[in-house]
Amino acid sequence: MKRKECLKNKLKEVLILCSIEACVIVYCSYEPELEVWPEDNTAFQNVLNAFLTKSPMEWRKFLLNQDRYIKESFY
């Protein structure tokens, strides 16, 4: 629970500092439902729709982990 709140707070900071839109989807094996943030459904749907309307090639750049990003950027 504490980590989820920390994650939400960090996301709030990034949203403000970078002037971006973002959302978080949290799934826990011990909770029956997904938790989404922001809790405002409209804001969450806007971010999700913006992501889903991208082509698969555009998705790829959003789905990088740190190691893969470094490999693709420098090689």
Provide structural commentary:
The structure is a single chain. The chain is mainly alpha-helical. The chain has helices at residues 2-18, 41-52, 56-62, 66-74; strands at residues 24-26, 35-37. The chain has a two-stranded antiparallel ribbon with strand order 1-2. Strand 1 and strand 2 (35-37) form a beta hairpin. It is globular.
Task: Throw out a few tags for this protein.
single chain, 75 residues, mainly alpha, two-stranded antiparallel ribbon, 4 helices
Question: What order do the SSEs take from the amino end to the carboxyl end, as H and E?
Answer: HEEHHH
Secondary structure tally, helices: 4
Measured distance between first and last alpha carbons? 40 Å
Low-confidence runs of at least 5 consecutive residues:
none
List the strand order in the largest sheet. 1-2
Q: What does the main sheet amount to? A: 2 strands, antiparallel
Over the alpha carbons, how many angstroms does the gyration radius reach?
A: 15 Å
Percentage of residues assigned to helices = 55-70%
Structural class: mainly alpha
- Mean pLDDT score: 80
